Structure formats: structure tokens, C-alpha cells
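Lab notebook, bench 4. The sequencing result for the construct came back, and we need a structural model before the next group meeting so we can plan mutations. Quick request posted to the team channel:

Model the 3D structure of this chain.
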Amino acid sequence: MRKIAFFIYSLGSGGAERVVSTLLWDLKDSYDITLILMSEIIFYDIPPSIKIVYLERSVPPEKGFYKLIKIPILSYRLRKIVNENGIELIFSFLNRPNYINILSNIPYRNHKVIISERTNPSAMYRENTISNFISKLLIKTLYNFADIIVPNSHGTAYELIKNFGIKEELVEVVHNPVDMERIDKLKYIDISMPCPSSDFIFVNIARMEEQKNHKLLIEAFARADMENTTLLLIGDGYLRESLHLLCKRLSLEDRVYFLGKIDNPYPYLNASDSFVLSSDFEGFPNVLIEALACHIPIISTNCPSGPAEILKDDYDGNELIEEVEITDYGILVEKGSVESLVRAMKILRYNEALQKKLKSSAKSRVLEYEKGKILKKFDSLIKKDMKDV
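Done. Here's the predicted structure in C-alpha cell form:
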């Protein structure tokens, strides 16, 4: 079998990590696969047959300058791993593994390089800091040395080509897969809801960090002041305590429930009436696809990138919308606008016909992201790039 590797920082509980885990299970019988990690954190299941190699065993958080100066050293280590294991292709995910993967192959061209860009870099590195300047410079300098660049949304692809000078012929968009069969099994598991008497439940699943903007969601929920309506927050992070305090200041202790990180969030999605994404930016939000798989109506900020192309049939790369837009498969609201989110939540809360329509349309939309269809695209990219190895 041909020898390939998947390279990612860790297998923690993020979206990119879930995609890697899914690819390992799907491709384990077709390739001799090595999983290369930089941290010992493993949240997702991996097949027993997969060989794990640690490029390092770092413990986050690490300072930005320290992470930067390690890149050449780790690139040298990766080149040794390639040579020692006869690896023909490395498929890397997330920025630092991407930089290391590319650098390890310059100038020797020992292996084929596929990199996956998982977020919108213009949004991710929008603040004027030295660290962000260096990250943007590395993307502009290194990415064109890859054999294939795989963004997970058309919005991210557009950003790479327009703002970072990436060659269009290198870019192949592949969306994130959703395992509908698995979700269908898990979403019907019995759970004890914290708000059994609530008439309407909004739910959010996200890490509690600034990018996800839970503050916007909580403030909009408070201002909407909808009777017998509950908000569930699933996830954890360094902002959790401050968000608790915000709920206390807004007298929401008995209406907003912090459920923490949950291994199986699908029963909560299935039992809720609407999923709300409040992020300032994304790459391609897996959680919206999972909400569609649970057939619940979606409200999302129209952040770059992903929500608009998931929720609109006629997405044309333009992220701009009116304050509130009812789309084919959900509701898009202006990014960062409390007023827009309040309006959308009220519209959906009190419009049963719209709730029914969006539940119905979710069933057809999610088929576009079905695991088998998406994984075939990943496999075809690997096969395409290995033809001349």
C-alpha cells in the first residue's frame, strides 16, 4: 500500500481534528497511514492500525515567538520522519503543521504536500500585531509551494486567492463531511434536559473564546426577553467564568444553562428548537451541518466564512447581507449586531410556519455534506497528487 501521513497539532475536540479522525477510519484499508502529532491530546477515536509519531510533545499554551522559532527545527524533524518511514505524501491541517509540512519539503521535494486551510485568514489575523503579520507573511510566502491547497469553504478559497496571492490552480475546495448515520444513532439517546418545562429552546455549541462571541448571543437573548424560552450553552473555555458573570448581571441564571463540554451533543440538538451561531469568523462551521442533520432551524451571524454558503442556494462569494435575511435553509444576521440577532430570534420563536419550513429544508440540504460524498473528494485528491510520486 502507498504510504501517506496526516499531520495535525493534536486530536483535540475541534472541527479539523474530527475531519482527520474521520479520514483515518475511512482510508485505513486503502493506505499505510501514519498520524503525525505535535501534542499528546487525543479526543477522537482512531483505528488501532494507525501508527502515531510525535514530532514533539508540546503542552499548550505556548508563546507565539517560541512557536515561530521552532518551525525550522520541527521541519527538519519532519523530513527525518518522512525518510525513515518512506512516506510519500503528507496531508496537513491547520497553519503551523502546514508551514512545517511545506518547509520540510523545500528544496528536496521528498514527498507530496497537501495542506488544508481551515479558517478565513483575513479574519483570523485581522488585528495589527507582529504575530499576525508573521502568520500572514508565512501564508503568502509558503503556501504556493504546496502541491494542493484544500480550503473547507469557498469564502476561504476566495480570501487565499484575492488577499494572499495564492495560485488559483492549486486550490481545491472540499467541505467538511457529516456522518449522518452516526448522528442519527446518537441523537435519540435519552438525556435529562435542564429545562423540561421550557416552550422553546435555543442552543449553541462552541468553545468559549472571543471568536465565538457568546457575549453577543447572551445579550441578544436577554434583550429579546421571550417568555418561557431557554438558552443552552454547550462547550467550555477560558471565557466561561466571565460569561457566567454576564448572565448573573442580566438576571438570566434560571434561563441560560452552561452544560460544559459534552461528548455527545446530538440529543441536545435534537431536543432543541433552534441552533444559534454567534461567531465573528469561522472557516467552515461543522456545527451548522450537524444542526442541519438534526433537522433544527438555524440562526447564524453572516461571518466569514461558511455560514452563507451553507444556508443559501445562490451563494456567490458575497458575504454582505441586509440586517436579517431569511434564506433557503436558515436565517443570517449581521455579524456583531445585537439588534439583528434579537430580531431573528423573535422572528423564529413566534413563527411556527417558518420553523416547519426550515426543519423540512434541512433534511435535503444536509445531503450535500454527507460523509461518503465528501470523503470520496478527499481520496481523489490524494490519488491525483500521488500519480507522479
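The CA atoms of residues 102 and 146 lie 6 Å apart.
Will bring this to the meeting.
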